[in-house]
Design brief:
Distance between the termini: 15 Å
Bound molecules: guanosine-5'-monophosphate
Largest sheet: 5 strands, parallel
Low-confidence stretches: none
Number of helices: 7
CATH topology: Rossmann fold
Strand content: 15-25%
Number of domains: 1
Order of helices and strands: EHEEEHEEHEHEHHEH
Length: 192
């Protein structure tokens, strides 16, 4: 393995971790590249295959599991599989960049366990479950059933926060962005 680092952002859906990850990707001096996950879930209207996710059929996804092609994978919601392909991390390290992940809590912790020294695992916490519900409703990407499913899962995910290297509470976005930048920057500089 080379000296590339792994920066993991995990959080309940709707906590704002994607916004933070996108912001960090724009800071070129950090030299980060987004790990494009594979998923068996349906593509949303504005998403692009090979940019947001690699969209696989359920069968293709399961074949990749069988062939040991994943660094980690998770059935995040029923029949909605998500995972990181080994080839994705290798692609990014080969570019001489560090990998940044926007993945669920179990996947994030699994990466941390596999590469404890190379990984900085950050948990993004919503200010409250009520606020999370409001944000998911505003996003209008899921129906009420799916929102309820995500909120129910969020409560269990919040309990795992202490297992991460650090927790960022996203109540004020500007403040959360600044904290995230500082954490990542100092980790990358410490472990050169
Ligand atoms: P969404 O459907 O909103 O894009 O993502 C649903 C959840 O799946 C999010 O919590 C997201 O972080 C998680 N997820 C996305 N990619 C991966 C991955 O590669 N592995 C795991 N374990 N979770 C992922």
């Amino acid at each position: 393995m080379n000296k590339g680092k792994l920066i993991v952002f995990s959080a309940p859906s709707g906590s704002g971790k994607t916004t933070i990850v996108r912001y960090l990707l724009k800071q070129q001096e950090l030299n980060l590249e987004f790990s494009i996950s594979a998923t068996s879930r349906e593509k949303r209207g504005n998403e692009i295959d090979g940019k947001d996710y690699y969209y696989l059929s359920l069968k293709e996804f399961k074949n990749n599991i069988k062939n040991d092609a994943f660094l980690e994978w998770e059935e995040v919601y029923r029949d909605n599989f998500y995972g990181t392909l080994n080839s994705e991390v290798e692609r990014i390290w080969a570019m001489g960049k560090h990998v940044i992940f926007d993945i669920d809590v179990s996947g994030g912790l699994r990466i941390k366990r596999k590469f404890p020294e190379q990984t900085l695992a950050i948990f993004v916490k919503p200010p409250s479950i009520d606020e999370l519900k409001i944000r998911l409703k505003k996003r209008k990407t899921e129906n009420t059933d799916k929102i309820n499913m995500r909120v129910a899962k969020a409560s269990a995910e919040l309990a795992t926060a202490p297992l991460f290297d650090c927790v960022i509470v996203n109540s004020d976005l500007e403040d959360a962005l600044k904290k995230a930048y500082n954490k990542v920057d100092s980790f990358l500089n410490q472990h050169k």
